[in-house]
Amino acid sequence: MDFYSTAPNVKMRLASIDIGTNTVLMLIADIQRNGSLNVVKDEHFIGRLGKGVDEHGIIQKETFHRIHDILSQLKNIADSFDIKRISACGTSALRDAENRQEFIDFIKEKLAIEIRILSGKEEAELTYLGAVSEYLSSADSKNYAVLDIGGGSTEIVIGSGARVTSSNSIDIGSVRLTERILKNNPPSDIALMNAGRLVRDYLQKIQSLLPTTNIIGVAGTLTTLAALDLRIPEFDKNLVNRHTLTIEAIDRIFQELRPLTLDLLKSYPQIHPSRADILLAGIIILRETLRKVNLSKITVSDRGLRYGIVLRTAQNLFNDSI
């Protein structure tokens, strides 16, 4: 069954939870059989699941309880919306943590939420599906590229329409780069130089990419930069979504933020206080990636993995009902 083909407007209400290295995101949406999506609820928490994972290889015990409290809130919200299914997925930090199964078992026992750990390839494909979903129609065959700068890893995915043709996942993200190199705010010039060099080293490992100019960027680094570029007094996804960021704007914002202390970064209304310490790392990854592929602009999307998860879940459930 072609998910985006014309079909009767049967719909189901689903929830997805994206348990990332830095954030915990939940989407509740009504999905129709033809693939159209209507957002019912979109929740965002900074969970820092990956705090210390790169250095110590394990999820800290205090983190177990912090993520439990967030997921408990999200489960209560989801239960109030009469959903058919919650699909919870973990990404880079859970892939890397030696005690990942202990964490998964803890959450299942306490909250009856089963977390599935996505491979880098699965994460990339679902992120792509979520990011391009609002652009697609049944006849869409345009080429797209999606860049997802996460806390622990960065995904670069190429596709034609809804079909992924190639993907790369590199093990460097905004939290990991911060914990390794950018440990102080403001960081020294040497630290910034070393951070850029490390990202370039990772990018050298990937194949030639982006046979397209339609590049879409998802996740907090991109949406924060869009809000800063627009200078809106508070985050508004309707303004941020589909905003075009030029390399000149990205460079200007980077130069503005790089000499600032953490307290000054937190004073910006567009910067979430819990993202302030990792924002420069995310910008460095973005700048180096755009330079690597010789592109001068990127379109921001507030969609991403959580959208891909609900769309894929709906596709599977609709196919099972045929």
Notes on the protein architecture:
The chain has 322 residues and is of the alpha/beta class. It has 2 domains: 11-121 and 305-321, Nucleotidyltransferase, domain 5 (2-Layer Sandwich), CATH 3.30.420.40; 136-300, Exopolyphosphatase. Domain 2 (Nucleotidyltransferase, domain 5). The chain has 13 helices and 11 strands. It has helices spanning 53-56, 61-79, 92-96, 100-111, 120-132, 174-180, 189-203, 220-230, 237-240, 247-257, 262-266, 279-292, 305-321; strands at residues 11-19, 23-32, 37-46, 85-90, 115-117, 143-149, 154-160, 163-170, 215-218, 244-246, 297-300. Strands 8-7-6-9-11-10 form a 6-stranded mixed beta sheet, sandwiched between helices. It has a 5-stranded mixed beta sheet with strand order 3-2-1-4-5, with helices on both faces. Strand 1 (11-19) and strand 2 form a beta hairpin. Helix 8 packs across helix 12. It is globular, with a radius of gyration of 19 Å. The mean pLDDT is 88.
CATH superfamily of the largest domain: Exopolyphosphatase. Domain 2
- Number of helical stretches of at least 4 residues: 13
Helix/strand/pairing category: alpha/beta
CATH architecture of the largest domain: 2-Layer Sandwich
Strand content range: 15-25%
Could you report the average pLDDT, rounded to the nearest whole number?
A: 88
The CATH topology of the largest domain comes to Nucleotidyltransferase, domain 5
CATH class of the largest domain: Alpha Beta
List SSEs in N-to-C order: EEEHHEHHEHEEEHHEHHEHHHEH
Distance between the termini: 9 Å
What's the helical proportion of residues? 40-55%
Biggest sheet, in brief?
6 strands, mixed
Strand order of the largest sheet: 8-7-6-9-11-10
Q: Uncertain regions: pLDDT < 50 for 5+ in a row? A: none
Overall 3D shape: globular
Compute the CA-based radius of gyration. Answer: 19 Å
How many domain modules? Answer: 2
